[in-house]
Specification:
about 70 residues; two-stranded antiparallel sheet; 2 strands
Protein backbone atom coordinates (compact mmCIF):
# COMPACT_ATOMS: atom_id res chain seq x y z
CA UNK A 1 0.00 0.00 0.00
CA UNK A 2 1.45 3.39 -0.92
CA UNK A 3 0.24 5.04 2.31
CA UNK A 4 2.90 4.76 5.02
CA UNK A 5 2.00 5.33 8.67
CA UNK A 6 4.70 7.16 10.65
CA UNK A 7 2.96 7.04 14.01
CA UNK A 8 5.96 5.39 15.69
CA UNK A 9 8.15 8.30 14.57
CA UNK A 10 5.77 10.86 16.08
CA UNK A 11 5.45 8.88 19.31
CA UNK A 12 9.24 8.79 19.61
CA UNK A 13 9.53 12.52 18.91
CA UNK A 14 6.95 13.22 21.63
CA UNK A 15 8.53 10.67 24.00
CA UNK A 16 5.17 8.96 24.41
CA UNK A 17 4.38 5.26 24.59
CA UNK A 18 1.68 3.60 22.52
CA UNK A 19 -0.34 2.54 25.55
CA UNK A 20 -0.36 6.13 26.85
CA UNK A 21 -1.66 7.44 23.53
CA UNK A 22 -4.28 4.69 23.32
CA UNK A 23 -5.49 5.58 26.81
CA UNK A 24 -5.69 9.29 25.97
CA UNK A 25 -7.61 8.50 22.77
CA UNK A 26 -9.97 6.04 24.43
CA UNK A 27 -9.09 3.19 22.06
CA UNK A 28 -7.53 -0.20 22.71
CA UNK A 29 -3.81 -0.74 22.33
CA UNK A 30 -4.66 -3.48 19.82
CA UNK A 31 -6.51 -1.01 17.58
CA UNK A 32 -3.66 1.50 17.85
CA UNK A 33 -1.21 -1.28 16.96
CA UNK A 34 -3.22 -2.12 13.83
CA UNK A 35 -2.98 1.52 12.79
CA UNK A 36 0.74 1.77 13.60
CA UNK A 37 1.63 -1.30 11.56
CA UNK A 38 -0.28 -0.05 8.52
CA UNK A 39 -2.76 -2.94 8.63
CA UNK A 40 -5.76 -0.64 9.06
CA UNK A 41 -7.96 -0.27 5.97
CA UNK A 42 -9.39 3.06 7.13
CA UNK A 43 -9.22 5.65 9.89
CA UNK A 44 -12.01 7.87 11.12
CA UNK A 45 -11.38 11.59 10.86
CA UNK A 46 -12.33 11.89 14.53
CA UNK A 47 -9.56 9.41 15.44
CA UNK A 48 -7.06 11.19 13.21
CA UNK A 49 -8.05 14.51 14.78
CA UNK A 50 -7.59 13.10 18.29
CA UNK A 51 -4.16 11.68 17.42
CA UNK A 52 -3.06 15.02 15.98
CA UNK A 53 -4.38 16.85 19.04
CA UNK A 54 -2.59 14.55 21.49
CA UNK A 55 0.69 14.51 19.55
CA UNK A 56 0.47 18.19 18.56
CA UNK A 57 1.07 17.40 14.88
CA UNK A 58 -0.51 17.52 11.44
CA UNK A 59 -2.04 14.55 9.56
CA UNK A 60 0.89 14.68 7.12
CA UNK A 61 3.25 14.04 10.02
CA UNK A 62 1.52 10.72 10.61
CA UNK A 63 0.65 9.57 7.09
CA UNK A 64 2.76 9.73 3.96
CA UNK A 65 2.12 8.77 0.34
CA UNK A 66 4.99 6.80 -1.23
CA UNK A 67 4.79 6.04 -4.93
CA UNK A 68 5.57 2.35 -5.39
Amino acid sequence: MPIVINLDVMLAKRKMRSNELAERLGITTANLSILKTGKAKAIRFSTLEAICRELNCQPGDIMEYVNE
